[in-house]
Structure formats: C-alpha cells, structure tokens
Amino acid sequence: MRDLRPLALTMGEPAGIGGEIALKAWLERGSKNVPPFYLIDDPDRLDALKSRLGWSVPISSIETPGEALNVFPNALPVLKHPLPRQPIPGTPHHENAGAVIAAIDLAVEQVLYGGAEAIVTNPIHKKVLIDAGFNHVGHTDYLAELAGQGARAIMMLACSELRVVPVCVHMSMRESIEKLKIGSITEATRATAQALASDFGIEQPHIALTGLNPHAGEGGAMGREEIDIIRPAIEQMKREGLSVRGPEPADTLFHERARGGYDAAICMYHDQALIPIKTIDFHGAVNITLGLPFVRTSPDHGTAFEIAGTGVANDESLIAALKTASAMARRRRGAQVR
Q1: Are residues 125 and 167 in the same domain?
Q2: Residues 229-245: pLDDT tens digits?
Q3: Are residues 239 and 96 in the same domain?
C-alpha cells in the first residue's frame, strides 16, 4: 500500500467563498477529522482574506505536495499560485480566469503523477471563465479532457442518505428530452455501478432509474420515452448482469422508505436529481465526478458572491467533499475504509 498523500484543493473563483471555506475547514481539521489537504492558491490573497475575517490561520508556503503532510497539523499548506490581480470578495475579475484554470491543470498533473491523493475543486464561476475563452460548461467535461484516454465524465451528487446521477446535465429541458438516448442512459448507469463497487465498497450495487414523464409515462398516456428509450436501456443492462430497476415515477422514489431500496438513482435530467438531494442535505451534499482515472469531488454549491468575504459561508459541503475524496481514493488503492 502506498504511503498517505494529501488532497489537492484548487482555489476556485478567487472572488467567491472558496478561500474562506478552505480556511474554515483547516480551522476545524481536528474537531471534524478533516483529512490533510493543500490549497493551490495565492498566499497574498489568503493573508488578506484571513485578516479581513479576523481568523488566526497560519499559512505555510510549500514547494511540493509531499511537504503538506508535515505542515498540515500546524499551518495551512499553500502551493503558491499567484493571481494577476488581487480579488475583491464578490467582484470577479476576468484577469484571474487564466490562473483559476491553471490551478485545475496543476492539480490534475499532480494527482496523475502521484503527488496528490485526489482532487477537490472549489467552485468556479462559469461565465467569467467562458468570457475569457474557456470552452467548457464546467469542471466535469474539462477534467475529462485533461484526463485523456477517452475519459467520459459522469456527475454524481451524494450525501449520507442518497446518491443521484443525472443523465442530462447542464442543458435546457427541451434539449434534455432531445438528447435522452438509450446509450446515454446505459453509459451513466455502467459508470455508476462501477464506482459504487470500486469507490464506495458496495460489492453488488442496486440501481433505480427514474422515468422522464409524470407517473413514468402512465403506460404511454403521458409520453413514450419510458417505452421507447428508458425501458430498453434497462433491459439491456439487465442482460449485462447489472442489478437495475425502473423506470420509477420520480415523485415516489426519494422519500425515506424508498431510498432504502437502492444504492443510487439514475435520473433523466438535472433538476430531477438535484432537487431531492439538495432538499435532503443542502449543506452536506458532494459533487463527485465518475469515469476519471483519478478521484475528484467538489462542494455542491456555487461561488456565493453575495456573502463572499463575510465569513458566514458554510464549509460543511467542502469538508464532506474532502472526506469523500479521501475515502474513495483509499478504496481504489485497496485500503480498508470504515
């Protein structure tokens, strides 16, 4: 078994709450059993932020990820990554977009070459990056491109009571219906089944799939997607040996008793997945990217410009993301995880 390595945490949007929840997570490292991490960020902006908040967080610049384990108990390890312009909380600057993207690139390089155990990404602001020439809708597809080898990234949202995977993600309802295909459903389900086994320690995962329409189409009375697309995908996966069921009406799949009957739910579109998990655990849910050759998690929230720099941002999702990433990475390398 390889020696323990730290988690790489990216800066995210520097005008958002990423910096302060990272500071807060380090402050709570002992009381909440936060695994060791280092932050790829600009020490100057962190010094300004902790002074603004009045928080006593010693910051120690490191040269390599390996130094973080010794530093972490006594100071926040920061791999220096200068920003072209020091940010004002709540006011993003396009000049910093390149540095935000480069921090992601560096984290991927370090996890692929063994310096980091896994990647945890702080929230980015998509419009700022897109305006600066970033040709991706978010972290997920960009990470797949960086991973290479034809990686197809799948988004999972997870908390202690529920795991959900949307087949269609960041697109309109109209486009989601048009893009829903047998192949996209089977791809998402296979990736989920593999991850449940390798990353969550569930030897024989059982997966439920929702319908698209009300009442799962009511036998074709409310739409034929269940008959023409979803059910054939389910039958195909059953022939492959996967334990799957559905299509289930989405309005009865997420109450407490129903959740006990499956290990993950495959949902047909974005809000069908995100509404139930954010209702159940708004602060503690974690965004997980499946299908990559490395582990990547993220807090399940955005940059929260409206509260950035005030110190009130909740760090529960970041801490959950750090813990989840650590546990997943350890399972992948064969360690026992309680």
Answers
A1: no
A2: 999 999 999 999 999 99
A3: no
